[in-house]
Queue: 3 jobs
Job 1
Amino acid sequence: MRFYDGLPAVLAGTGIVSAIVVMQPTAAVALSGEQVNNIAREITVLIKGKEGHGSGVIVSKNGNTYYVLTAEHVVGEEDDYKIVTADKQAYQLDFSKVKRLAGVDLAVVEFTSDKNYQVAKLANSDTLTEGKPVFVSGWPRLTTVGNAAGGQLIRQFTDGRISGFLPQTLQGYKMIYTNTTLAGMSGGPVLDAGGRVIGIHGLGDTEDPRRLQSEGFSEEAASSIAGLIKPGFNYAIPINTFLQGTAQSGLYLALQVENSPAPELGAPYVASAAPDKRDTIDNINDVLNTVRRVTDTIQRVRNILPF
């Protein structure tokens, strides 16, 4: 893969044609945890299928087309997926246009909108070291408790630190961190203290069902419960793995990448006592129905205009 300093240049290719932009290695600005959360809110999306959902992050834009990076297993099976952005607008995902990166659990999906959505800045993940603060943003699936509390979907933003790196990658996963995560957050961004994406979350240790069986649970109950308990570390695919894999997969995107090391955190993140309304979806069906309303509006305009 070729990197370009300065102005964008056009790459010739048969797929998406654009430039990969690497910004000059100036020092990243140290942000507070709350400022990082504000960035994460704007760039994190919900990817909803009929049977479940995952998360993703907006990494590129070309005209009215936005490109979302996620874990491949989030869109691994053909389904009627919708992408929900920070303003609670849903967009249809064309499954035939899903781009999978070879050998790793990453995929790029796209949606079209004339709205202006924030695009993530990426950072050189090779500069990361143990002990650095990181944040994970994503939309957890509803648990039994969540359903009992009213069924509200709430984007989660959790803090932690890098605790190490796997000696050998597993489907691209290498970065280990202490952040709390839940199912449904797979595909969401891992951010550094500068609000830059340095990885894609998608894997976590889960409870051993055999231990639950030894405590009296049936085999069926133990298997069901074990997947909901995450007692250990979580894992991400470093963003450099994505950068290296795009060209190999015939995928060329306009990306904002900074080479500077992660800054120190300006102030720690303190979660509020109640969920921010900007991070909540009270009725997911109402949100998904916005796809139909947008489609109907476009069709009415086409019927009116003389072309």
Job 2
Amino acid sequence: MTAPLDAPHDLVGIGIGPFNLSLAALAHGLPQQGIGPLATAFYDQRRDFRWHPGLLIDGATLQVPFLADLVTLADPTSPWTFLNYLKHKERLFPFYFAEQFHIQRAEYDAYCRWVAGRLPGLHFGHQVDAVRWNPERDLFEVDYTRIDPDGEAEALGRAYTRNLALGIGTAPHVPEPLRPLAEAPTVPVIHSAEYLDNRQRILGAAHVTVIGSGQSGAEVFLDLLRSRPTGREGLSWLARTPSFAPMEYSKLGLEHFTPDYTRYFHALPEPVRDQLVPAQWQLHKGIDAATIAAIHDELYRRTLDGGWPDAVLTPGVNVRTAGRVATTKIELHLEHTQQGTRSRLTTDAVVLATGYRERPLTRILAGLDPYLRKDSSGRPRIDDRHRMILDPSVTGSVFVQNGERHTHGVGAPDLGLAAWRSAAILNTLTDKEPYPQPHRTAFTTFGLEQREHTRPHPAGELLPLVEHP
């Protein structure tokens, strides 16, 4: 339900990616303290929903099961489940016989677009410009610009809301040494987020270099490898990590993506959290085993005639500097961290699978800066209910989606926790429990539940350990 003109909303969402789309789906039709449906509005500057369109490579799958859709892990009876999408598309039986636990990315994108096209209260083509707190009305003011199909400003508007949900997502990260080349139109240096839009141009290059050892880098390298003639592949794959490492996908390892671990992580001291996040890179930046196997299989197939493919895979390498050579070529200056050696690589095109960074909130939240409480690194402090900690004079809440890795850990950007986090936000927002939360979600007990020294009880219970002098 959308609020009447100038009437305050209960919730305004900024950004319509999977996380705020999940929130919108679970909020749809939800009663607000018995006085009618929750009044919501969600804004995004894009013309319609698109989820990483540049990486919807044919055959690429999600790294999470299809149950990690927008709503199922909070409400499997919701009309917005992936299974209900299949039913509406008359594809439920084919999916049943396909026995696919991990669906293709393109299918997940199509499912999200199906939901976005049917949910009310989603406003695409609306760029949020500023957010302020109005102490006289006890409301947030959200200023936006409506964008026409040509990307030009069409009209200005303002919405009022009691609460906000920030879901502005992440932006492609281009390492500093390669930014001048990526911004120059004359040489093909592109981020993997734009891979499919530039695929034909990249395939036409005599030699292509892929930089980055995560899932995106592996998928781009595999797609290029399969598209090149045997013996004339002309490929290099470089990575800073010491190996092309598999993603941690053991069943107990995956319990780091549970509400139990999120709560544990949030309770840790800030310095400990800051040390943990980079050390856990293999939980979310590795390559799934199937993709690694497919790359090796393809490389091996190309040795059947006795030769070796013209493909060089080198981990442990940093790109120090980069520049153009003879207008059309790119020269990368490399350093091997373990050997301490340096070298140069000349290539015709570069695909940067160098990941994403959280979009800064400073522009949108500049008007709220006096009210924000920040940690020792200047980042917003976020409580265990995914709310920014604000000055007590602000009666509304600002919820954060996928901008709280520093407080909630590696699960913050994971699709598998989307529905749980959305449900937690709505439970807090309505001051009820429309979506009951599980008390336990992992077999692993993260940390000792009591701070005292403990000893194991025969039944497994931890009891205080009494130390006698």
Job 3
Amino acid sequence: MKPLLPVAEAQARLLGAATPVTAVELVSLQDADQRVLARDLIARLTQPPFDASAMDGYALRAEDAPQIGSVLTVIGTASAGHAFTGTVSKGQAVRIFTGAPLPDGADAVLIQEDAEVLPGNQIRTTFEVTEGRHIRPRGQDFLEGEAVLKAGTELTFTDITLAAAMNHAELCVYRKPVIAILATGDELVPPGGTPNAAQIIASNTFGVSALARNAGADILDLGIVPDDETLIRAAIDKAVAARADILVTLGGASVGDHDLVQAALKAQGMVLDFWRIAMRPGKPLIVGAIGEMQVLGLPGNPVASLVCSLLFLEPLIRKLGHRQMISRHIKARTSTTLKANDQRQDYLRARTIAHENGQPIVEAFNKQDSAMMNIMAQSDCLIVRAPFAEALEAGGECVVVRLRG
């Protein structure tokens, strides 16, 4: 039997075989959050489209107020959406409000707090006037024809606001990767069902789906299929017909008498890359492809399934979807002694109990069984123990994988 594959090598091989999606689609601004731009976004207008007042006050010519105490005559009003149509001449001013176009002839704005209102539509300056002050020049933000947002941008609420200001109602983005998820096992019953004495409630699909959506995928749920190779093969065909980018199977990834997934995948044309990883939890992990569809066979134990999803499925989805990779690894210190490790890279469920000099202090749970989701839910990180790592005393530095944030 081949030796177990190191985690880093397994990740590199999985991502090395992945090709980002090329299909694009138009989405509304309301649906653009966290999508990835497929084309440079070109401004359809200049912003601001005119010299605009940045403050409420008076538009005037700076040369007409050479010193504090200058008196000017107010000849009209300009407000947002309503321009003053005349021209400001010598000794004149226009009452102006924020966002209003600067009248012709004016080259400065005196804010209202610095103007004393006099009888007869006149004002007296109580502060010095400087040419260009409190004016937003035309094109200060962007110019018509400018490529303001670049292809590959992961759109945030600020980007979407900018796109709207550029006069775009729809954006061209990459299609989300489609992830087909197939749970297998005679022992599984959907949540809300009534298991018999030998069955359990199926939970993996929901956690894996949530993780995949958060990474940027659309989900095709193929449901739960019993341990029947014919039925498993039919479900695989549904994923192929739906042109899923990734088929994720849950359970049956090993080669026992009731582990039929790998055989069914091969019967449907899967080219197997590897399937045994030097990690705990999660050793039986199938990686291969059926045509252009990537295949990721996760173990059935829920903790192992989620840990493998975090380490393999999340980065795979991000690569397919043109999203930036994120690193969840940070340094921390252990609050307890960690025993020496064997040949498999261990991921210990742990929680942060304090911070010292800006570094997390983490505590591994005593129980690490890969079926215990209660402890997994209480954890906020995984302590990484490299193969053959020596014992680590309390206070020693370690690497953890953040589960949140």
